[in-house]
Write a structure and sequence with these properties.
Layout (H helix, E strand, L loop, with lengths): L1 E5 L3 E5 L1 H4 L3 E6 L2 E6 L2 E11 L4 E6 L2 E8 L1 H8 L12 E3 L4 E6 L6 E2 L4 E7 L2 E6 L4 E6 L6 E2 L4 E5 L1
Antiparallel strand pairs: 1-2, 1-7, 3-4, 4-5, 5-6, 6-7, 8-15, 9-11, 9-14, 10-13, 11-12, 13-15
Amino acid sequence: MYKIKVNTNSTFEVTKESLEPLDVVETSHHHYHILQDNTPIKAKILASDFNKKRYTVKVNNHTYEVDIYDALDQQIEALGFEIGASKQVNDIKAPMPGLILEIDIKEGMEVKENDTILILEAMKMENVLKSPRDGVIKTIKVNQGETVDKNALLVEFE
């Protein structure tokens, strides 16, 4: 089961079974046609942040910020931890294979939590990877234009 928070004020619980009746067709890259109870819906993914599991989605000309919480996220939240052990992250690895489009940091640079580190293109979608914590960039292991595999080391913190 997933917990979906929309615009930080509405929360829904979604199960895999509840999504099965939806008829979803990708009409073009990041554009979808959804049929729910014979009602057509147009949806487009405008932006995504895999670190935070946050997406900006346009549905029938209305834009929504959507946060997705899986079972582990919900357990961590129930224990009273908002981020949990991720604050101790000392490196950033590629969440999926892709192409490094942009690097917004330099070695030795101080960064704050949520500062943009780099942009990774995967499946023709730009994914903004942000700093999981305040820190200093020790090394950058990739170059702009480079293709990386899933779990490839991208950046190390001091």
